[in-house]
Amino acid sequence: MTLEELKTRCKNAGFKYAYGLFKQSTEPPHLIAISTASDNFMADNKVYHESTPIQLDYTYLEKNLEEQKKIENEILGDLAWNKSDETYLSDEDVWQISYFFEI
After folding, report:
1. What's the confidence (pLDDT) of residue 81?
2. Is a pLDDT exceeding 90 seen at residue 87?
3. Which of 7, 50, 71, 78 is packed most tightly, with the most Cβ within 10 A?
4. Rounded to whole angstroms, what are the CA distances from 15 to 11, 40, 50?
5. Cis peptide leading into 28, omega within 30 of 0?
């Protein structure tokens, strides 16, 4: 998968999506992706396999299991992924779950 494919999958599943941040204030639910430090396989000063870890943050106001299943089955269904615990962000008055996977 590429970042462009991730964007397409998120939009096709009906989510508002941005990489990094939204340019304008956007009401939840929405998805924001960021890439974290690379996790390449290297040996003998050569990269043999490139891997880009992605964190996909699902931000929402009310628990919606249908939306979570859409993310897990439609967007990430063919990838190996993990997710964080639900976290309440009191300064923004929203909930968030982060999904972690590699592309």
Report:
1. 97
2. yes
3. 71
4. 5, 30, 28
5. no
